[in-house]
Amino acid sequence: MKINELKSPKGSRKRKRRVGRGSGSGRGKTCGRGQNGQKSRSGSKSKAGFEGGQIPLIRRLPKRGFRSKFPKNYQIVNVEQLNRFKENEVINPTKLKELGIINTLKNKIKVLGEGELKISLIVQAHKFSKSAEEKIKEAKGKIEVIK
Q: Could you say which of 27, 73, 75, 84 is the most buried, measured as most Cβ atoms within 10 Å of its Cβ?
């Protein structure tokens, strides 16, 4: 097979619809736009959700919930992920970033208690869950809260 023998699959290439080419074409005179009205005019566009003056659906539905303009985004680290480190090592955000456990140093870090901790560590983070605190202390480790 050569490049000049390649053909696109049937139905993948559609011809452009030519409107306004006489009444015999089926798309003459009004060109498939109907008689009159806003959408028959050239350059007519309405914004998304516009329902012709009727109250749009988005405004008819009740408001639900609350979203803060200043959310506190925490990156989550599970206790199980800390088993990679050496015994009695100080774990801070920069070390977590180096190992690829967290993505960025901009967001705060919260340590959660999923999994088991087998070594004692000194963990520095912005927040700890109660179960994470218990597991770190159970493994004879220490907790330091960063402010």
A: 75
Instruction: Give dist(CA 114, CA 2) in Å, integer.
Output: 58
Averaged confidence pLDDT in the chain: 93
Residue extents of the structural domains in the chain: 74-145
* Measured distance between the N- and C-terminal CA atoms of the chain, rounded to whole angstroms: 68
pTM above 0.85, yes or no: no
CA distance 116 to 78: 9
Domain 74-145, CATH class in plain words: alpha beta
Tens digits of residue pLDDT in 41-82 = 989 888 899 998 899 999 999 999 999 999 999 999 999 999
